[in-house]
């Protein structure tokens, strides 16, 4: 099988695996314990915090470790709302935010918050003018992802951040898909908080982090929590944090090389679809607002689930959207944000490249999809 679902998760890097095992076996103390082993674990923890803060261009005092992006999004939003900076119960969010964001917003709606969801333009971007017009006197928070996980578009965070700052509104940014792929340092001055995850960058699953501007006075969601300055309960996963830090160091070093390689693969793949391009729709932004490793597309007249299953039969692993949404029997969130009708929404598929992806892999996938389309039996209904 050839893997084309790197936007969902990545294989664990061997160096990271070795670090994880070493820290787990030799420095296994609880980082809050006062004995020597606890002190060793605490030293590793704080060294990792400092290194990740350096890579991200943030102050280490505002960096807290979590179990991943989903938990990070929830805790960041709750922390910002707890600050009491501004009275109000109105929140603005992108319509295609990650499902962890939508779940949190549904909870907040039940608590009396009013939510405004922003659609995407035809190029997969949020229009800052639409966001500006959506602001109300009671608006306290905006939530906009840095990179969309389903089509890879890069949102104009700097411009959105300026608008939020001018209106005394917090801005949370889900940076899970951009962390280690593009420059995140440039958006840090414009956000109140951001989240990231280890398993998207060849680190272990179950570990991630949140940055909250240290000038913000937030209150713990879980009372009585001592770990991570009260941000998150539970013994800190020092081995996971150490392994994620190694993954971050490695991917940040090769960021530009990866970007250039993914851009070449993207262009090669699109060119190889030439026999069926009249039926292919690629959802993308101009290249300066597009992560090249993620390609969201549809093929007219064929459901995405059919394409995915046929690809799997031929030895290619692709997806029909975010893995966190699989099984919900509803189209990817991006299709709603783009204003697609139900038929077009069900045609959506996602292909994503990783460090192991080769031009030969991409050629085989493109040829496989061309063959699937040319041999499509007709009307196939997938329940």
From TrEMBL:
SUPFAM superfamilies listed in its UniProt record: PLP-dependent transferases
Name of the protein described by the UniProt record: Aminotransferase class V-fold PLP-dependent enzyme
Keywords: Aminotransferase, Pyridoxal phosphate, Transferase
Signal sequence range: none
Domain (Aminotransferase class V) ranges: 2-365
Requisite cofactors: pyridoxal 5'-phosphate
Any GO MF annotation of the entry: transaminase activity
Pfam families assigned to the protein according to its UniProt record, in alphabetical order: Aminotran_5
